[in-house]
Write a structure and sequence with these properties.
The protein is built from 3 helices and 2 strands. With 88 residues, it is mainly alpha-helical.
Length: 88
């Protein structure tokens, strides 16, 4: 994506965004220095901070997925305990 000197259209299609949303995200990502716009190439590049963000996001995403799985398992155990304590 942006690490490959991507143009707006390329990013828009790869991220499956409409143009209005894409512009909003590109502006925000530029403001916080996650990407840079290279005028001479008319494309976007990911910054070292952007790379760091992506790695942190991947780790966060994995952790959330694991937590959801654990929560599902805990709820199943809770249901078993509740069932064992019922008057049935």
């Amino acid at each position: 994506m942006a690490s490959e000197n991507a143009k707006k259209t390329q990013i828009m299609y790869r991220a499956n965004l409409n143009y209005k949303v894409l512009i909003k995200y590109l502006k925000k990502a530029s403001e916080v220095s996650l990407i840079d716009y290279k005028c001479e190439k008319q494309c976007y590049m990911i910054t070292p901070k952007g790379e760091e963000f992506l790695e942190a996001y991947k780790e966060y995403s994995r952790d959330i997925k694991n937590l959801k799985k654990q929560r599902k398992e805990i709820n199943a155990k809770k249901n078993v305990l509740e069932e064992l304590c019922s008057n049935k």
